[in-house]
Amino acid sequence: MRLPVRALPIQAIRRRLGSGLLLAALLCASAGHAVAQAGSRVHTVSMEAVGFSPAVLKVTAGDTIAWRNADPFPHNVTARDGSFRSGDIAPGQSWQVKVGKKGRFPYACTLHPGMEAMLVVE
Questions:
Q1: What's the CATH superfamily of 42-121?
Q2: CA count, 13 A, side-chain hemisphere, 58
Q3: What pTM was estimated for this model as a whole?
Q4: Helix, strand, coil % over all residues of the chain, rounded to 5
């Protein structure tokens, strides 16, 4: 059995093709955005022995930094310029922030004088 073939005017073909190309372009743009999001990294800073390790961390804008408290008492993460502040982080807990602004960000634990470090966002 042969199915009937329906002829489409050129304008209809262009409309269908044009909307298909638009859809394809939108899907590619969405996929590119997902790849850019997936490309960001998570870095971990350990809080132990009343110090931050590493003491200087270089990251890329868009990355996430997670601070993990490995000491048996609370710590916090407080940027000197006030751009981020964790509040107290209990032993065994963590806190994270996604950085977007480039620059050098010295930070400290306000509970323990001398517990200082530097975050460099490139």
A1: Cupredoxins -  blue copper proteins (2.60.40.420)
A2: 1
A3: 0.69
A4: 25, 35, 40
